[in-house]
């Protein structure tokens, strides 16, 4: 088991739900052209180590105990939009993630790096399986200072004392249309849905 990230980097993004798809506009299919995604888009995350899974056991030597006290693996990939997905209208693809930290101030703003995979795997799960085929695409940001975090007691410092940590949840939303891909964050703030600034990506980028 490795030492893992330093205590100064106590921040982890985890996927919490399967991806969702939702049409945004109703158009007659025969009136518009369709197109397929040329690559797979998603987010690199930390996952909790599960010894019952063969792909986790293969990476056991890279596992570490994080600030929450959980044994984790970094370098997992969660797809939001899969290569080959075809649409004939603008369609929403989203996945829910949870940002966890031991430092409350770090939840005042959120940013997520969107990663693109241009390899041959249908649904890649790990960055190191085809590392050269992954590359950063863009980073989406949001002001989450008004979001009420969940508070957890657990984990420990080097002296064995319990440590409090905090988390917030948000959706990473990709809008896949006929001419472009748009990425942004969406979250709940006092029961009201909020959207962060959108980043527009053209697939030839």
The SSE string, one letter per element, is: EEEEHEEEEEEEEEEE
**Number of strand elements:** 15
Overall average pLDDT: 85
Helix content: under 10%
From the helix content, strand content and strand pairing, which structural class follows?
A: mainly beta
Tell me the β content.
over 45%
What Rg is obtained from the alpha carbons, in whole angstroms?
18 Å
Distance between the termini: 38 Å
Largest sheet: 8 strands, antiparallel
Number of helices: 1
Write the layout of secondary structure elements.
Layout: E1 11-15, E2 20-23, E3 35-36, E4 40-48, H1 54-57, E5 64-65, E6 71-81, E7 86-87, E8 91-101, E9 109-117, E10 134-143, E11 150-156, E12 162-176, E13 181-189, E14 192-195, E15 199-201
Antiparallel strand pairs: 1-8, 2-8, 3-7, 4-6, 4-9, 5-6, 8-12, 9-10, 11-12, 12-13, 13-14, 13-15
Describe this entry's structure for a reader.
- This protein is flat.
- The relative contact order is 0.21.
- The chain has one domain.
- A hairpin with a 5-residue loop joins β5 (64-65) and β6 (71-81).
- The longest helix is centred in the first third of the chain and has 4 residues, at 54-57.
- It contains 1 helix and 15 strands; from the N terminus they run ββββαβββββββββββ.
- The protein has one helix spanning 54-57; strands spanning 11-15, 20-23, 35-36, 40-48, 64-65, 71-81, 86-87, 91-101, 109-117, 134-143, 150-156, 162-176, 181-189, 192-195, 199-201.
- Strands 1, 2, 8, 11, 12, 13, 14 and 15 form an 8-stranded antiparallel β-sheet that branches. Strands 5-6-4-9-10 form a 5-stranded antiparallel β-sheet, with no helix packed on it.
- It has 205 residues and is mostly beta strands.
- The chain is 2% helix and 50% strand.
- Residues 2-9 and 23-31 have low confidence and may be disordered.
């Amino acid at each position: 088991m490795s030492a893992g990230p330093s205590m100064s980097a106590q921040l982890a993004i985890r996927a919490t739900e399967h991806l969702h798809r939702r049409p945004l506009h109703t158009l007659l299919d025969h009136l518009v052209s369709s197109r397929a995604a040329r690559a797979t888009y998603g987010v690199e995350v930390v996952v909790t180590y599960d010894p019952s899974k063969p792909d986790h056991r293969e990476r056991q030597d890279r596992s570490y105990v994080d600030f929450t006290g959980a044994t984790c693996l970094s370098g997992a990939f969660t797809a939001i939009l899969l290569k080959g997905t075809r649409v004939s209208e603008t369609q929403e693809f989203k996945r829910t993630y949870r940002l966890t930290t031991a430092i409350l101030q770090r939840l005042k703003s959120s940013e997520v790096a969107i990663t693109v995979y241009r390899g041959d795997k249908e649904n890649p799960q790990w960055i190191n399986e085809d590392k050269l085929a992954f590359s950063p695409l863009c980073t989406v940001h949001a002001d989450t200072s008004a979001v009420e975090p969940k508070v957890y007691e657990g984990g420990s410092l080097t002296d064995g004392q319990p440590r409090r940590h905090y988390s917030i949840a948000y959706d990473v939303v990709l809008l896949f249309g006929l001419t472009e891909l748009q990425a942004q964050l969406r979250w709940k703030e006092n029961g009201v849905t909020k959207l962060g600034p959108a980043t527009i990506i053209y697939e030839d980028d």
